[in-house]
Design brief:
Layout: H1 2-6, H2 34-44, H3 49-57, H4 61-73, E1 77-79, E2 87-89, H5 92-132, E3 141-145, H6 147-160, E4 164-169, H7 176-191, E5 195-201, H8 208-220, E6 223-227, E7 234-237, E8 241-245, E9 254-258, H9 261-277, E10 279-280, H10 294-304, H11 309-316, H12 320-334, H13 339-348
Parallel strand pairs: 4-5, 5-6
Antiparallel strand pairs: 1-2, 3-9, 4-7, 6-10, 7-8, 8-9
Helix pairs in contact: 2-4, 5-13, 7-8, 10-12, 10-13, 11-12
Length: about 350
């Protein structure tokens, strides 16, 4: 820890803040406590060593060491490259960028929780309305409970589709039995002229059976691309109906059919946006020197937002163990000691946009 390094640091002097004064907390809006702000400013203004900071701010040694450890975790303070026994406080320009990045990360995490709450509320409303009005089959939003009901409804929609079928296929490598069962239907749809486009996760590229199936689809006339992550399972029929899994983590639990023109337009725009950023199936996915693959960049973004290995694995379509290995590799590559610090360093090094949510 930084505190151990500070033991050997010499007591330094001087500064623009009176000894014993704790800063008023101008950086509180950026999440920096007054104590941490005062210690950071003391280092910026030339105070050296634990003893020097203790004397300047009239604080116990244990309190100062704790503050230095916290500042180190935030990447605001580190051992000097010129002298390992001295501390270096990053410049205010860099420090403020780090604090703002932390605030963005916290806001993004809160937004994610809000979206999850909204989705849960929507599922409850749809479920309640469905039980209250069982005869509303022509409703613009229709809820289907259970895998049997979903399959029966998909059979009807597959028979009705005439021009276009667009699919988000998350979950990573597909089950062999599901791929075998889908082939006759895919051949039938393509045979009658339905244009099909499917987006899988990049993780299928490491699964031979799924890649074989995807190549078979392209040979039949379906267009296939991949992306690092997908928001949910979704199928769009002729830009008239959209089927969405009601629970992205359990697609067999239920589904929602949307037929409202406005909602269908929005969801179709989402598909087209993802499609434009997706990689064609035959495109090689090798990162250049110092670059990250799309999957690694997405894992880093999720890592910076505080997602667990299990959550990252689900988004990428890999096992939690593989997600843990990817996260550990990225943190080692960046020299980060925490997930938040990995996000900060990634922004500073240009791996993530500073304004990304």
């Amino acid at each position: 820890m930084i505190g151990r390094v500070c033991l050997e640091m010499r007591r330094g002097g001087g500064g623009m803040v009176d000894a014993g004064a704790i800063h008023s907390g101008a950086l509180g809006s950026l999440g920096l406590e007054p104590l941490l702000e005062s210690v950071y400013i003391a280092l910026l203004e030339g105070t050296n060593g634990v003893a020097g900071i203790c004397g300047r701010l009239d604080l116990p040694e244990q309190v100062v060491r704790g503050a230095l450890d916290r500042l180190s975790e935030l990447a605001l303070v580190r051992p000097s490259a010129d002298s390992p026994h001295r501390l270096y406080a990053v410049s205010p320009h860099v420090g403020m960028e780090i604090l703002i990045a932390q605030q963005r990360s916290e806001v993004a995490a809160q937004q994610q929780r809000l979206e999850s709450a909204q989705a849960a509320a929507a599922r409850f409303i749809l479920d309640y309305d469905g039980r209250q009005a069982p005869g509303s089959s022509e409703a613009e939003v229709k809820y289907l409970a259970g895998l049997d009901a979903i399959r029966d409804h998909l059979t009807v929609l597959n028979e009705q589709v005439a021009e276009e079928l667009l699919t988000f296929a998350p979950g990573g490598p597909q089950k062999p039995e599901n791929m075998r069962a889908s082939r006759p239907l895919n051949q039938q749809l393509l045979g009658r002229g339905v244009q099909m486009r499917t987006i899988y996760l990049d993780s299928i590229r490491h699964d031979r059976p799924t890649m074989d199936h995807a190549h078979w689809l392209t040979e039949q006339g379906c267009e296939v691309r991949t992306v690092p992550s997908l928001p949910n399972r979704m199928i769009i029929y002729d830009r008239k109906f959209v089927m969405i899994a009601s629970n992205a983590d359990d697609t067999a639990a239920g589904a929602v059919q949307v037929s409202s023109p406005g909602m269908v337009t929005v969801l179709h725009s989402l598909f087209e946006s993802v499609w434009q950023s997706a990689e064609p199936l035959k495109a090689p996915q090798h990162a250049g020197p110092g670059e990250l693959t799309g999957q690694q960049a997405e894992a880093l973004r999720l890592l910076a937002l505080g997602h667990t290995d299990e959550a990252i694995g689900k988004r990428l379509g890999v096992s939690p163990r593989t997600a843990r290995r990817i996260a550990s590799s990225l943190m080692a590559h960046l020299g980060a000691r925490s997930r938040f610090q990995a996000g900060v360093i990634a922004i500073q090094q240009g791996f993530l946009p500073s304004g990304a949510d």
